[in-house]
Amino acid sequence: MTAVLSLSRISKRFGALTANDAISLDLAKGEILGLLGENGAGKTTLMNILFGHYVADEGEIRVDGKVLPPGEPKAALAAGIGMVHQHFTLADNLTVLDNIVLGTESLWRLRSDHAAARRRIVQLGEDFGLKVHPDAVVSSLSVGERQRVEILKALYRDARILILDEPTAVLTPQEAAGLFDTLKRFVAKGLSIIFISHKLGEIIDACHRVAILRGGKLVAERPIDGVSRGELAELMVGRSVPQPKATARQPGATVLALKAVSARRGQLALRDVALQLRAGEIVGIAGVSGNGQSLLADVVGGVAVPDAGQVRVGAEVLADISPRQMIARGIARIPEDRHAEGLIGDMSITENVVSEGYRGRFSRRGLIDWGNARTFAETVIRDYEVKCPGPEARVRLLSGGNMQKLILGRVMAEDPVVVLANQPTRGLDVGAVAYVHEQLLKARARGAGILLISEDLDELLALSDQMAVMYQGQLSPLMARDQVTIQQLGLMMAGQGFIHVESIDAA
Amino acid sequence: MRLEPREQQTVALSFGLPMLALIFSMAVCAGLVMLSGASPFQVFGLMIKGAMGSQFALLETLTRATPLIFTGLAAAVAFRAKLWNIGAEAQLYIGAVMTAVLGTGLLPLPWPLLWPVLMFSAMLGGALVLSIPTLLKTRFGVDEVVTTLLLNFIILLFVSMLLEGLLKDPMGLGWPQSKKVIADAQLPRLITGKRLHLGFVVAIAAAVIMWVIDRRSALGYEMRAVGHNAKAAHFAGIPVNRVLAKTALLSGGLAGLAGWSEVTGLKGNLTLDLSPGFGYTGIVVAMLAMLHPLGVIAAAIFVAAVFVGADAMSRTAGVPSYIAHVMVAVSLLAMVTAIMLTRYRVRWR
Fold first, then answer.
1. Does A341 contact B219 at a Cβ distance shorter than 8 Å?
2. Do A399 and A419 belong together in one domain?
3. Which residues are CB-neighbours of B121 under 8 A, at least 6 positions away?
4. Domain range list for chain B
5. Domain contains A336
6. Which residue of B215, B229, B241, B290 is the best one to mutate when testing the A interface, meaning the one whose CB has the most A CBs within 10 A?
């Protein structure tokens, strides 16, 4: 086989950080190459160099033997490189056709040839098994369909090398399997694919070969045949990471209960949600992103006020739902978005650890006792192993894992009754993930009830005592962890067993 | 070209760059002065002399700085919480109206009682003026830049109406001005026979109080948190709307004090030319001070010195005193750029 794409000794430094260190990599025609690595391993930087967003400090890229001029996204496009981003880059208010054609036509032409474009899109869709209606408005499409549009966009521009960045993050297990079939069909037709992921199972399922990046270096290349998950994990992390194990524990009294809770925010809605969380157990909520999990978390976190229903913490039905109420009742809240909600980036660590408790033990008669606050910050930094220059450091400069440790320290210090963990490990490296899991299990052992919302099924299956699935704002009944299979969860995530919304509205 | 946040802000940068900014703006203005045919050295020399070359000049500069400290603090405290109060001018005038209504004989109190009453009511007036846009912002999401700015014109016309009617001094020979405030309302001069008055001391005290609030109090913390990231503040249980309301009361109150201090300390009555744009210049002062309450004192004195110095200079050198506006504007732009560069570095590629 010949290499359609070859990277030779690509290096890129940002100040003191070497993001890519002399990486050489070949992609053969008709091959799916997995690019595996943790966050910060240099995958994104490498792809940005390939796509011309960054200029490499050293090294060169060849497509079909010809050198690709650095720093020119147009040249990369012209050479047939297409990128499908993790976060879609579609205009919601335009049709599929408009989105695909956007940017391919000269601005100076007066009319655009929609008929030809439509024919071409339909043809591509048939050839590659990507069925989408060209005249559908993007906002009406499901996530899986939007991804197909993204891929069609690249194919429409004659991409022969497709780069998929974490493409399964938004898919159910079944949809992901469907995507892998589609990819196999692509390579049968002569395309070549780079598949970026940090999930081992997917790499094994989807790829022919895998290249592993760690700390900016290419540490290994392996054919998929004969490689094991354990081996990949160790190569990716550089050491073996012991998975924290939950010990069996008898759950106690109910600490949090939702009864017939409905809420609404923009497009999102919670419909008649019931949930019971007992002391000393972890309840995992699965679901495809955007099915109301964030709204559920906001209700439990006090950020969103339900329109109907009851929220009970301990024995008490809450009359007033606000963040302060929830904090006062002993709910430790780990928000989904560390940057937007969890921390204030331009303030110091000290200022951030007191943001929930500054009115209480850190202030007297309206004046804040900063000495006391700093002592607390130092305790959190020590106990939760936050790597930082000191308590006065601005939070913005911390890594994602250290930010999460800081949040954990802030909310766990007061021995919470309930822990609300919304996507607590998203974007963290393996070490930090294990640390967060360990802390959640510790809280469970201390007798806290934990509500774990995650889009990572492996995480949920590893930690939960009971599980439920969210679909279009509805929550399934709880199921014991050892009585569900991943297939069953996948089907439920796609809506099986739920009342469909249209029928509710009609009724 | 793009901006990358710096890992750390070194002391050399955070002092050096603003200094460079000042030198840069001096150089730009020197060019303008040469265009008008004068010698920059002579002009700058005259300006410095006119602003602080004598006791009279220095006192005049401090007198001019007094309302700017108040309005600068008003802008600084509001901007900290990202409440964009462009309406200090209106709040100043309402503070002055309250003073003129209550201080011209309606309350025949001795000064130890009258002063606090007048101060409080001027603050209340200013605070209420800013409360309207703040309420519109928190309730309906109306942009406060627009509402505070437009309120300036409404309030100024309202004051004009009062001065032609209700508040018009019957002995004022038909001029649109209020009666003089009574003796017990007047602030004493700091040095007999000079214009600098006790309002300056009150302004300094206000800056110190604001500094303590900013650094030490829970309210100051809340205001900073809301300004930096309102969503995270809300998540952490900080009552964002209530904090904005309190910020508005403080900010409007400080601007109202500027009106009180000008009427009782300097002018003696309310006229339509009480403020030559002190409310707007306060924004410049706050930005030059990087929103630091104590920095506001220095920035206000600097800006006042430029204006007073330029007035004196134009009388002798024949360069129009509008050069002062250019100087203030250029140094603001240079300073804002410098502040940005202390926090970010520019990457060209």
1. no
2. no
3. B98, B99, B102
4. 74-285
5. no
6. B229
Whether B225 has its CB under 8 Å from any CB of chain A: the answer is yes
At A6-27, the pLDDT tens digits run 999 999 887 777 888 999 999 9
Any domain includes A94 = yes
Residue bearing the bigger pLDDT, B109 or B134:
B134
Q: Residue A393's domain spans which residues?
A: 343-413
Cα gap B153→B87, rounded to integer Å? 9
A351–B221 CB contact, under 8 Å: yes
Same domain as A456, residue A362: no
Whether pTM > 0.90 for this model: the answer is no
Choose among A335, A363, A370: nearest Cβ to B235. A335
Residues A296 and A167 occupy one common structural domain: no
- Note whether residue A338 is domain-resident: no
> Are residues A153 and A290 located together in one domain of the fold?
no
In degrees and rounded to multiples of 5, residue A14 shows phi and psi of: -115, 100
Looking at the structure, tell me whether residues A325 and A464 fall in a common domain. Answer: yes
Residue A248: DSSP 8-state:
P
Alpha-carbon distance A216 to nearest alpha carbon in chain B (angstroms): 21
Which ranges of B169-292 does DSSP label H, i.e. alpha helix?
199-216, 218-228, 230-235, 240-261, 278-288
Q: How far apart are CA A47 and CA A82, in angstroms?
A: 11
CA distance B229 to chain A (A): 6
Q: Which of A413, A436, A469 lies at the terminal end of a domain, its last residue?
A: A413
pLDDT digits (tens, 9 = 90+) for B135-189: 999 999 999 999 999 999 999 999 999 999 888 888 878 788 999 999 999 999 9
Instruction: Pick the last residue of a domain from A365, A384, A413.
Output: A413
**What are the residue ranges of helices labelled H in A222-322?**
229-237, 293-301
Cβ contacts of A363 on chain B, cutoff 8 Å: 218
**pLDDT class of B203 with cuts at 50, 70, 90:** very high
Q: Which two tokens stand for residue B315?
A: 């009388």
To probe the interface with A, which of B219, B221, B291 has the most A CB atoms within 10 Å?
Answer: B221
Q: State whether residue B235 sits within 8 Å of chain A by CB.
A: yes
Instruction: Tell me the Ramachandran region of residue B174: left when phi exceeds 0, alpha when psi lies from -120 to 50, beta otherwise.
Output: left
Q: What CATH number is attached to the domain comprising A298?
A: 3.40.50.300
Test B225 with A327 for CB contact under 8 angstroms. no
Determine, yes or no, domain membership for A337.
Answer: no
Burial bucket for residue B209 (CB in 10 Å: 0-12, 13-18, 19+): middle
Predicted confidence (pLDDT) at residue B90 exceeds the cutoff of 80:
yes
Q: In terms of domains, do A17 and A69 share one?
A: yes
> pLDDT confidence of B242, banded at 50, 70, 90?
very high
- The β-bridge partners of A82 are A162
A176 with A139, same domain: the answer is yes
- Contact between residue B87 and residue B278 where contact means Cβ atoms under 8 Å apart: no
| Pair A183, A303 in one domain | no
Count structural domains, chain A.
3
Res. A353: pLDDT tops 70: yes
| Span A113-171, pLDDT tens digits | 788 888 888 888 888 888 888 888 888 887 778 888 988 988 898 889 999 988 887 78
> Which tokens go with B172?
């004022």
